[in-house]
Amino acid sequence: MTPKPPSKPIKSEIGVVEEAEEDGVEECRELEVLEATVEEEVSESAGPEVKIVKKSRWEQSRRSRKFCGKWLNIPEIREWVHPIPTDPTYVWCKMCKSKIRAHLNDLKTHKSTKKHKRNMATYEPELPPAETMDCGNGIFVSFSTPKIRQGEMEVMGLTSDATEPKEAEDPESGVLGGPNLSSMSTLGGKEVVNPASLGFIGSGNMAQALLGAFIKKGLVDPPHVTASAPSVRNLTKLCALGVCTTHDNNMVVMKSDVVFLCVKPHLLNNVIASLDPLPPDHNPLFVSIVTGHDIDSLEEMLSTLVERPRVIRTMPNTPAMIGQGCCLYTLGTHATPSDGSVMHSMLSSVGVCAEIPEQQMDAACGLAGSGPAYIYAAIEAMADGGVKMGLPRHLAQSLAAQMVKGSASMVLESGKHPGQLKDEVCSPSGTTISAMHVLEKAGFRNALISAVEASALRSKELGGNK
Ligand SMILES: NC(=O)C1=CN([C@@H]2O[C@H](COP(=O)(O)OP(=O)(O)OC[C@H]3O[C@@H](n4cnc5c(N)ncnc54)[C@H](OP(=O)(O)O)[C@@H]3O)[C@@H](O)[C@H]2O)C=CC1
Ligand SMILES: O=C(O)[C@@H]1CCC=N1
């Protein structure tokens, strides 16, 4: 069967912009139509009561116009618009430091004002409004740029730790640092990381899993994140979170203190080769989640951009998205102890996190990186078994998933060996030992051992494809 083409094919950046513009315009058109319909209905209606009802419906619809993440794909807008997470019916103009209604037409009008043009010409990056500090959904943001004003510090309730100016130089390595990434602070009882601006080259499953966890835990402010990808497939999802998106990988590197490399292994060489060398005052920390590529190859590739690149290699997994992931990491030659402790703090937010020697990375991939897929397949298959034996599908799936979760918690919390826990389920001549016999005959344990081995070996092989 020929796959169905997407309803709006995106061919180029121009296409993206057109789509974003069309969406915004479409939204306005829909509202205009609604407005006209309502006015018509009102004029035809008999009494004042009806009129009030109709009017309030109309007003509601006007009020419900909200910031749309896709607008950040419009180059003439994204440079100056900053979403206000606490009030999506307005946006913040970074240039004029003013609030504007979140209507695409209002943004276009604002952009043409003399004041805005003047401010654009003289713009220096500054803080968003204080009201974006508490973003809701557990997101708190602290800023430590020296530009922060005393009054604003108090409004934000920041401790002095959180507002220290950035370290100029790491005494051990002589590496010029970004902001003091390791300085943690608390705000509203939550941990916040100082204002590292994060970049993601590649915005797919894993980038979203990590970023989702960082945002959920309040470790990063979405407008301080820049993510890239060639298509809008994934970028639109990130846009909706208030993250800045682009098709330009160089922009990600230039805007970020920490750059996550999140592309497929076979693309990494070309992606890095097409990045521009960095200016001497910019030396971001590169964190690779790319399977296979080892520290040596990462450092070699990145040394075309910057001398002594600071690199961390990681192996996360997708349950990171809900804070139940595993993430292993290893530090590169030029990564500082402070880089290590920051990354440890950040990666701990995705679940279990540990530093391991690099030679264990392929095995970590085979077990923890790929492992969720084995378990999803097992859940699906066991649910099928339940359905075969008469359970409704939704119940079978929930039971299978909860049973896996409960069994995993037993291993983690009881301290017992899994073999012992298995024995506790198997009564003599009982049902479970009959089932275990079937699994053994089918090579269940052998299959799992071989699966971990196959993934680890493939990881090694991918690393060899330099
Ligand atoms: N998935 C997992 O469970 C795990 C994955 N990993 C590793 O993480 C990496 C990413 O995997 P995953 O997130 O699953 O992959 P996805 O396919 O979901 O995401 C890949 C992303 O890279 C983007 N991309 C493609 N070409 C470029 C380019 N030239 N420049 C910038 N971005 C580009 C894609 O763009 P577009 O959005 O346009 O398609 C997409 O956003 C891989 O190296 C994988 O080995 C590690 C651990 C676990
Ligand atoms: O299969 C993959 O590409 C990735 C690597 C680890 C898990 N999934």
From TrEMBL:
Keyword Endoplasmic reticulum set for record: no
Pathway(s): Amino-acid biosynthesis; L-proline biosynthesis; L-proline from L-glutamate 5-semialdehyde: step 1/1
EC number(s) stated in the UniProt entry for this protein: 1.5.1.2
Keyword annotations of the record: Amino-acid biosynthesis, Cytoplasm, NADP, Oxidoreductase, Proline biosynthesis
Localization in the cell: Cytoplasm
GO cellular component: cytoplasm
Keyword Repressor: no
Domain of life of the native organism: Eukaryota
Cross-referenced InterPro entries: 6-PGluconate_DH-like_C_sf, NAD(P)-bd_dom_sf, P5C_Rdtase_cat_N, P5CR_dimer, Pyrroline-COOH_reductase
Assigned protein family: Belongs to the pyrroline-5-carboxylate reductase family.
Protein name (Swiss-Prot/TrEMBL): Pyrroline-5-carboxylate reductase
Origin species: Petrolisthes manimaculis
